[in-house]
Amino acid sequence: MSTDPLLDEAKLGTVLGRRLRERRSELGKTLTEIARTVDMSPGYLSTIETGASVPSLPVLARLAHALDISLAETLRTSSSTHVSRGSITDDPGTRLLVPDNSQLEIACQSADAGQTGEAPVTLGNGDVFVYLHQGSLQITVDDELFELGPGDALHGDRPRQISWRATGPEPVLALWTTASTRTLPRS
Fold it and tell me: Fewest C-beta atoms under 10 Å: which of 69, 95, 96, 115?
Protein backbone atom coordinates (compact mmCIF):
# COMPACT_ATOMS: atom_id res chain seq x y z
CA MET A 1 0.00 0.00 0.00
CA SER A 2 1.40 3.35 -0.90
CA THR A 3 0.20 6.75 0.14
CA ASP A 4 1.34 10.17 -0.98
CA PRO A 5 1.51 12.70 1.87
CA LEU A 6 1.51 15.56 -0.64
CA LEU A 7 -1.89 14.87 -2.24
CA ASP A 8 -3.76 18.05 -3.12
CA GLU A 9 -7.50 18.19 -2.41
CA ALA A 10 -8.52 17.30 -5.99
CA LYS A 11 -6.23 14.26 -6.11
CA LEU A 12 -7.26 13.25 -2.59
CA GLY A 13 -10.91 13.35 -3.67
CA THR A 14 -10.13 11.18 -6.69
CA VAL A 15 -8.15 8.64 -4.63
CA LEU A 16 -10.78 8.43 -1.89
CA GLY A 17 -13.65 8.25 -4.33
CA ARG A 18 -12.06 5.50 -6.40
CA ARG A 19 -11.21 3.39 -3.32
CA LEU A 20 -14.66 3.82 -1.77
CA ARG A 21 -16.43 2.92 -5.04
CA GLU A 22 -14.04 -0.03 -5.55
CA ARG A 23 -14.80 -1.39 -2.08
CA ARG A 24 -18.56 -0.82 -2.39
CA SER A 25 -18.52 -2.77 -5.66
CA GLU A 26 -16.48 -5.58 -4.08
CA LEU A 27 -19.19 -5.90 -1.44
CA GLY A 28 -21.96 -5.86 -4.06
CA LYS A 29 -23.63 -2.87 -2.34
CA THR A 30 -25.49 -0.07 -4.06
CA LEU A 31 -24.79 3.60 -3.55
CA THR A 32 -28.18 3.93 -1.85
CA GLU A 33 -27.50 1.05 0.59
CA ILE A 34 -24.20 2.52 1.78
CA ALA A 35 -25.61 6.07 1.93
CA ARG A 36 -28.47 4.82 4.09
CA THR A 37 -26.04 2.94 6.39
CA VAL A 38 -23.95 6.08 7.03
CA ASP A 39 -26.96 8.42 7.18
CA MET A 40 -26.18 10.57 4.14
CA SER A 41 -27.87 11.24 0.83
CA PRO A 42 -26.99 9.04 -2.16
CA GLY A 43 -26.22 12.26 -4.05
CA TYR A 44 -23.55 13.32 -1.54
CA LEU A 45 -22.02 9.84 -1.56
CA SER A 46 -21.96 10.00 -5.36
CA THR A 47 -20.02 13.30 -5.26
CA ILE A 48 -17.52 11.68 -2.88
CA GLU A 49 -17.13 8.62 -5.13
CA THR A 50 -16.58 10.77 -8.22
CA GLY A 51 -13.98 12.85 -6.39
CA ALA A 52 -16.01 16.06 -6.59
CA SER A 53 -16.23 16.25 -2.77
CA VAL A 54 -13.76 15.35 -0.04
CA PRO A 55 -15.53 14.08 3.08
CA SER A 56 -14.69 15.22 6.59
CA LEU A 57 -12.80 12.77 8.78
CA PRO A 58 -15.94 11.73 10.74
CA VAL A 59 -17.81 11.07 7.48
CA LEU A 60 -14.85 9.14 6.06
CA ALA A 61 -14.68 7.08 9.27
CA ARG A 62 -18.39 6.21 8.97
CA LEU A 63 -17.90 5.23 5.32
CA ALA A 64 -14.84 3.10 6.13
CA HIS A 65 -16.79 1.35 8.89
CA ALA A 66 -19.76 0.69 6.58
CA LEU A 67 -17.41 -0.69 3.93
CA ASP A 68 -15.42 -2.74 6.47
CA ILE A 69 -12.03 -1.24 5.56
CA SER A 70 -9.49 0.76 7.54
CA LEU A 71 -9.02 4.48 7.11
CA ALA A 72 -5.52 3.76 5.78
CA GLU A 73 -7.01 1.48 3.13
CA THR A 74 -9.21 4.33 1.88
CA LEU A 75 -6.03 6.26 1.04
CA ARG A 76 -4.42 3.50 -1.02
CA THR A 77 -3.13 5.13 -4.20
CA SER A 78 -2.62 1.92 -6.14
CA SER A 79 -5.04 -0.75 -7.18
CA SER A 80 -5.63 -3.30 -4.45
CA THR A 81 -5.38 -6.26 -6.81
CA HIS A 82 -2.19 -7.23 -8.62
CA VAL A 83 -1.16 -10.21 -10.72
CA SER A 84 2.50 -11.08 -10.50
CA ARG A 85 3.46 -13.50 -13.28
CA GLY A 86 5.97 -16.21 -12.69
CA SER A 87 6.16 -19.70 -11.36
CA ILE A 88 7.34 -21.56 -8.35
CA THR A 89 10.33 -23.53 -9.55
CA ASP A 90 13.27 -25.28 -8.00
CA ASP A 91 15.76 -22.93 -9.71
CA PRO A 92 18.41 -22.13 -7.08
CA GLY A 93 18.00 -18.98 -5.01
CA THR A 94 15.26 -16.71 -3.75
CA ARG A 95 12.76 -14.74 -5.84
CA LEU A 96 10.17 -12.13 -4.84
CA LEU A 97 6.67 -13.06 -5.99
CA VAL A 98 4.85 -9.74 -5.46
CA PRO A 99 4.90 -6.31 -7.15
CA ASP A 100 7.40 -3.69 -5.98
CA ASN A 101 4.75 -1.54 -4.27
CA SER A 102 3.34 -4.37 -2.15
CA GLN A 103 3.55 -4.21 1.62
CA LEU A 104 3.60 -7.99 1.62
CA GLU A 105 6.87 -9.81 0.97
CA ILE A 106 6.49 -13.30 -0.49
CA ALA A 107 9.70 -15.09 -1.38
CA CYS A 108 10.10 -18.42 -3.15
CA GLN A 109 13.21 -20.18 -1.88
CA SER A 110 14.95 -23.14 -3.44
CA ALA A 111 17.96 -24.78 -1.81
CA ASP A 112 19.93 -27.98 -2.19
CA ALA A 113 20.24 -30.47 0.66
CA GLY A 114 22.82 -29.30 3.17
CA GLN A 115 22.53 -25.59 2.37
CA THR A 116 22.04 -23.18 5.25
CA GLY A 117 21.15 -19.54 5.56
CA GLU A 118 19.18 -16.76 7.18
CA ALA A 119 15.51 -15.95 6.53
CA PRO A 120 15.08 -14.81 2.91
CA VAL A 121 12.52 -12.21 4.03
CA THR A 122 13.00 -9.09 6.12
CA LEU A 123 12.53 -9.56 9.85
CA GLY A 124 11.28 -6.92 12.26
CA ASN A 125 8.17 -5.84 10.36
CA GLY A 126 5.73 -8.44 11.67
CA ASP A 127 4.98 -12.12 11.70
CA VAL A 128 6.70 -14.56 9.36
CA PHE A 129 4.96 -17.50 7.68
CA VAL A 130 6.82 -20.35 5.97
CA TYR A 131 5.19 -23.05 3.83
CA LEU A 132 7.35 -26.01 2.78
CA HIS A 133 6.31 -27.44 -0.58
CA GLN A 134 9.15 -29.90 -1.11
CA GLY A 135 12.08 -31.34 0.82
CA SER A 136 12.90 -31.18 4.52
CA LEU A 137 13.79 -28.01 6.36
CA GLN A 138 15.08 -27.27 9.83
CA ILE A 139 14.18 -23.74 10.90
CA THR A 140 15.50 -22.10 14.04
CA VAL A 141 13.31 -19.26 15.28
CA ASP A 142 14.76 -17.27 18.18
CA ASP A 143 16.79 -20.32 19.35
CA GLU A 144 13.89 -22.81 19.02
CA LEU A 145 14.32 -25.58 16.40
CA PHE A 146 11.47 -26.74 14.14
CA GLU A 147 11.48 -29.62 11.61
CA LEU A 148 9.29 -29.15 8.53
CA GLY A 149 8.33 -31.67 5.88
CA PRO A 150 6.35 -31.25 2.64
CA GLY A 151 3.03 -29.54 3.31
CA ASP A 152 4.08 -28.21 6.74
CA ALA A 153 3.82 -24.55 7.66
CA LEU A 154 5.42 -22.47 10.38
CA HIS A 155 4.13 -19.19 11.78
CA GLY A 156 6.63 -17.06 13.72
CA ASP A 157 5.11 -14.39 15.94
CA ARG A 158 7.36 -11.36 15.26
CA PRO A 159 10.62 -13.35 15.28
CA ARG A 160 13.89 -11.55 15.90
CA GLN A 161 16.13 -14.16 14.25
CA ILE A 162 15.53 -17.04 11.82
CA SER A 163 18.03 -19.43 10.28
CA TRP A 164 17.40 -22.53 8.19
CA ARG A 165 19.07 -25.71 7.01
CA ALA A 166 17.94 -27.91 4.11
CA THR A 167 17.95 -31.52 5.32
CA GLY A 168 17.17 -34.77 3.56
CA PRO A 169 18.11 -35.97 0.08
CA GLU A 170 15.93 -33.73 -2.12
CA PRO A 171 16.06 -29.97 -2.76
CA VAL A 172 13.92 -27.65 -0.64
CA LEU A 173 11.18 -25.50 -2.16
CA ALA A 174 9.58 -23.12 0.34
CA LEU A 175 7.46 -19.97 0.39
CA TRP A 176 8.26 -17.31 3.00
CA THR A 177 5.90 -14.42 3.75
CA THR A 178 6.01 -11.32 5.93
CA ALA A 179 4.94 -7.68 5.94
CA SER A 180 7.82 -5.80 4.36
CA THR A 181 9.15 -3.57 1.58
CA ARG A 182 12.56 -5.17 0.92
CA THR A 183 13.40 -5.61 -2.76
CA LEU A 184 14.59 -9.03 -3.91
CA PRO A 185 15.60 -10.21 -7.39
CA ARG A 186 12.64 -10.94 -9.65
CA SER A 187 11.99 -14.35 -11.14
Answer: 115
